[in-house]
Design brief:
Elements (H helix, E strand, L loop, with lengths): L1 E5 L9 H15 L6 H6 L5 H8 L5 H22 L10 H9 L4 E6 L4 H8 L8 E5 L11 H10 L6 E5 L2 H9 L3 E5 L6 H6 L2 E5 L5 H10 L1
Parallel strand pairs: 1-2, 1-4, 2-3, 4-5, 5-6
Helix pairs in contact: 1-4, 3-4
Length: 222
């Protein structure tokens, strides 16, 4: 058996606008100037406490805690308002997942910096959610690139690291894969660029989901 572990934000789901607006709410709570959009998006993939510490190093721990709470409140309010349809899948994502789910030699999993509440709410709108044998969130594990989430997926799927590929859009995803002794497949429609992904250890980097299945097979052939 083989295992494919997907990141969510920037890999399966386009949530840029909601992330930026929620981060603005977090900085308002702390009465601090919010970094520009590109800086905010550069930390996507990290768990929220680490993201706040990176974006607001001048703030103390209590302030970071308030910022995390404000971010979650704003994000949950947006999700309640727009529903799962407000967090669209990238073109080709569902078709690729269903194609893999139809194969009897592949299992699917998720490893995300999202909260458990956020992940579960998002997956409620997916007609293919039952294809994932393991879903790991930031609430249960240290932040990426710690390999804890991948290790849990391997255990749940009973698949070796050698037969596992982590799919993600950030260097944190690729570094997490390497730390778990898995291979990484980088995608360019998210938050980090080609050179950054390759430098972080990606075995392949693709431009859109039309290249995904072929690239995945190539990674396993290496």
């Amino acid at each position: 058996m083989k295992l494919v572990i997907f990141d969510v934000d920037g890999t399966l789901v386009d949530s840029q606008a909601h992330i930026v607006s929620s981060m603005e709410a977090a900085f308002r709570e702390a009465e601090l100037p919010c970094p520009d959009r590109n800086t905010v998006l550069s930390i996507v993939g990290l768990s929220l406490p680490y993201a706040m510490a990176n974006l607001a190093p001048q703030a103390d721990e209590d302030t970071h805690t308030r910022m995390v709470a404000a971010y979650k409140s704003a994000f949950n309010a947006t999700r309640s308002k727009v529903g799962s349809n407000g967090f669209p899948l990238y073109p080709g994502a569902e078709a690729a997942i269903r194609a893999l789910g139809a194969r009897d030699d592949i299992k699917l999993a998720i490893a995300t910096g999202n909260s458990r509440r956020g992940l579960d709410a998002l997956m409620e709108g997916w007609g293919f959610a039952d294809l994932f044998v393991s879903t790991q969130s930031a609430d249960e594990h240290p932040s990426k690139p710690n390999p804890s989430m991948v290790a849990a997926c391997l255990l749940d799927a009973n698949v070796s690291a050698h037969d596992t590929v982590v799919v993600g859009d950030t260097t944190y995803d690729m570094e997490m894969a390497a730390a778990a002794r898995c291979r990484g497949l980088g995608v360019l429609w998210g938050y980090h660029g080609r050179e950054a992904l390759l430098s972080a250890g990606a075995a392949r980097v693709i431009d859109d989901f039309s290249q995904f299945l072929a690239a995945l097979d190539d990674v396993w052939k290496d």
